[in-house]
Specification:
Elements lengths: L10 H7 L12 E5 L2 H13 L6 E5 L14 E5 L13 H20 L4 E6 L2 H7 L5 E3 L2 E2 L2 E2 L1 E6 L1
Parallel strand pairs: 1-2, 3-4
Antiparallel strand pairs: 4-8, 5-8, 6-7
Length: about 160
């Protein structure tokens, strides 16, 4: 069965995406990046387990160096660092580094991602503000037991 995130994987659509199967539309390009090679391997294993391993490519890379091609009409989903694993709170020096990361990511999105759709999960509204992107809608879900902010909109 398909999922709401990969509706093209539903039984009626799967044949169009299978190698050698008839195709009536382009296969989506799904790219995933993380700085940690272990997280990349975990993501690959999860994609294989979900049956979408052939549709997703994961690489060790820095999102601050994201390169998008004009006309991609990309959707960017980002679960950016919260600072908790690195022990950073907003008022610490590591917190300053975390805000700098969000600022750099926002600058890159403005430079490379104009017109793209963004969904970014952050721990605090301050992180979303550091992106410097205007017009993002904010929702306050709970992720892994942590209250956080989901920022949605067009870059």
């Amino acid at each position: 069965p398909g999922s709401r995130f990969f509706p093209e994987a539903s039984p009626g659509n799967r044949a169009r995406l299978e190698p050698g199967g008839p195709r009536t539309k382009k296969r989506p390009i799904l790219l995933g990046y993380d700085l940690d090679p272990q997280r990349v391997e975990e993501a690959r294993a999860n994609a294989e387990h979900a049956g979408v391993g052939d549709w997703v490519r994961f690489e060790v890379a820095d999102a601050r160096e994201l390169e998008l091609k004009r006309g991609w009409n990309a959707w960017i989903a980002c679960n950016a660092p919260y600072g908790l694993r690195v022990g950073a709170g907003a008022g610490t020096s590591e917190g300053g580094e975390l805000l700098a990361l969000y600022h750099a990511l926002g600058a890159r999105l403005r430079e490379q991602g104009s017109g793209c759709t963004l969904a970014l999960l952050a721990l605090e509204s301050e992180h979303v503000r550091a992106l410097g992107l205007r017009g993002l809608r904010r929702i306050e879900p709970v992720n892994g037991g942590l209250p956080c902010v989901l920022a949605l909109g067009t870059v």
